[in-house]
Specification:
Elements (H helix, E strand, L loop, with lengths): L1 H7 L7 H22 L5 H7 L2 H5 L5 H6 L7 H18 L4 H26 L12 H9 L10 H10 L2 H4 L1 H7 L6 H5 L1 H21 L7
Length: 217
């Protein structure tokens, strides 16, 4: 970030103090996801190895149990870095009380949208068996939201706001917190977006599970 700002001065009108808010929300969202739901990355290999057979006969709800079964310790570093960036950005931007109260909500929503997109992608493995390396594409797309969407081409902005709506939980609330857009509803937009993504991910999981064949089939 320092190298980019040193060369450009700012990023499409966003000074470094405000870009830190974008980076902070990405960091916190990723950190929460890695702490609570990181096993989604192993779903393709779990399907290939037949380990899902064992999970399906447990007296628990398979999807939540699967998602929380493998927390990553490095999530603490990602979340801590993101929290530090977010606090720094809110202080520098003289954000109001509403932004301070909603920042944790935005981080949780970013986590849910990010994890939901990964689960939808991972559910493809029910039909197309493979190592699941394609999940990293969605990881890198998530990290692209560390910078203002307004600096990207129009088609990418549309993708990040509607198709893969990371930006709806990161860029839009950051615009609202920094006074670029007005209207209280923009601060609350991440909540329904996260709910819709969770519903879509749950549906993708259920549809994929119908096509599952056990390792002994």
């Amino acid at each position: 970030l320092w190298v980019v700002i040193h060369q450009a001065g700012d990023i499409n009108g966003w000074p470094v103090s405000q870009v830190l808010l974008l980076m902070g929300l990405v960091g916190m969202g990723q950190g929460i996801s890695e702490l609570l739901f990181d096993n989604v990355w192993r779903l393709p290999s779990i399907i290939v190895r037949g380990d899902l057979d064992r999970l399906l006969v447990y007296p628990v709800r398979t999807l939540p149990f699967l998602m929380i079964s493998y927390p990553e310790i490095h999530s603490i570093g990602n979340f801590g870095m993101g929290a530090a960036f977010t606090v720094t950005a809110l202080v520098s931007s003289h954000a109001g009380p509403a932004a301070w109260l909603l920042a944790p909500v935005w981080a949780v929503c970013a986590c849910l949208v990010y994890t939901s997109i990964l689960l939808i992608a991972a559910s493809i493995s029910f039909s197309a068996l493979g190592p699941g390396d394609y999940l990293y594409s969605f990881y890198h797309l998530f990290h692209a939201n560390r910078y203002p969407l307004s600096a990207y081409p129009r088609i990418m902005q549309l993708v990040f706001l509607s198709v893969i709506p990371y930006g709806a939980c990161i860029f839009v609330p950051a615009e609202w917190a920094t006074g670029r857009i007005t209207g209280w509803w923009w601060g609350l937009l991440p909540i329904p977006v996260a709910g819709a993504c969770m519903a879509a991910a749950t549906l993708a999981w259920k549809l994929g599970l119908r096509r599952y064949e056990s390792a002994g089939a």
